[in-house]
Write a structure and sequence with these properties.
By secondary structure, the chain is of the alpha/beta class. It folds into 2 domains: 183 residues, Vaccinia Virus protein VP39 (Rossmann fold, 3-Layer(aba) Sandwich); 51 residues. Helix content is 29%, strand content 29%. Helix 3 packs across helix 4. Keywords: Methyltransferase, S-adenosyl-L-methionine, Transferase.
Length: 276
């Protein structure tokens, strides 16, 4: 598998066919378990202001809004945001949704919580990931919470790694996935072949692989504290071989936290929700 792939692959990956596959694959039960975890481990109060980024088609956004929280969702996929807007309207939910890169988020420190679900934390290269964490720290008020969902942790993917092809099906959509490991850059490169009737689509995704310790350091360096690790929404401990890592943290209370070279410079109008 070629390693010559754009670092911004995600900008064009999430069109209707891949999005529809993952909309079908995510069960209501798994979404409710995730939302229970967020509320329980961050101690959310009624009406908490929550930033969901990237929010995809809005499954966590809408589930949290249905529980009475105030939601803002940002995603780079116009198709996913369009779907989320229609679903919110059908459910009678008032949510703010915008199309933008995950680093282009409101940075006014007004959110009680930020959540990054669905394994998207590993889409960016290390420098981009640090910029994303800095943006999250600017978005969340001091003492506010953070949840990061990640299943490309080194402790999860490398033990017994074989890279064997996988075949998955939801209704009339079938996807074959082939994954290789780029050891020089510590990243998974996955090729996906989607089919639905006569429709076919081939796309490639990158997930940068980090150790659990490295992830914790990135969050701490970016302005968060009290990092905790869980192996799933049931609150089980994260251990080697666990298929999923859920990290929780709090925005540092110190208003004079150290600035970092990866922090993007503020620009006029950056606190506006993109494409709202």
């Amino acid at each position: 598998m070629s390693h010559d792939i754009s670092s911004t692959w995600y900008a064009n990956f999430f069109t209707e066919l891949p999005n529809e596959f993952w909309r079908r694959a995510a069960t209501p039960e798994s979404t409710e378990a995730d939302v229970d975890f967020i509320e329980r481990h961050l101690g959310l109060r009624p009406g908490a202001r929550i930033l969901d980024v990237p929010c995809g088609s809005g499954r966590h956004t809408l589930a949290l809004a249905a529980r009475g929280h105030r939601l803002t969702g940002v995603d780079i996929s116009a198709e996913a945001i369009g779907y989320a807007r229609r679903a919110a309207a059908d459910a009678g939910l008032d949510v703010a949704l915008g199309i933008a890169d995950m680093r282009d988020i409101p940075r006014d420190g007004s959110f009680d919580v930020a959540v990054c679900m669905g394994n998207s934390f590993g889409y960016l290269d290390p420098e981009g990931t640090r910029a994303f964490v800095a943006a999250l720290a600017d978005a969340v008020r001091p003492g506010g919470g953070l949840v990061v969902d990640f299943n490309a942790t080194a402790e999860s993917v490398l033990p017994g790694y074989r890279g064997e092809p996988r075949r998955m099906r939801t209704g009339d959509i079938t996807v074959t996935a082939t994954t290789g490991y780029d050891a020089a850059r510590s990243r998974l490169i996955s090729g996906y072949h989607f089919t639905r009737g006569t429709e076919e689509l081939e796309v490639t995704a990158i997930h940068h692989v980090y150790t659990s310790a490295h992830l914790g350091q990135i969050l701490t360096d970016g302005g968060f504290t009290g990092v905790e690790r869980f192996g799933g929404p049931d609150g089980s401990p994260f251990e080697i071989g666990a298929g999923r890592l859920l990290l929780t943290a709090r925005r540092a209370e110190d208003p004079h936290r150290r600035e970092h070279e990866h922090r993007p410079r503020r620009t006029p109008g950056e606190n506006r929700l993109p494409d709202e």
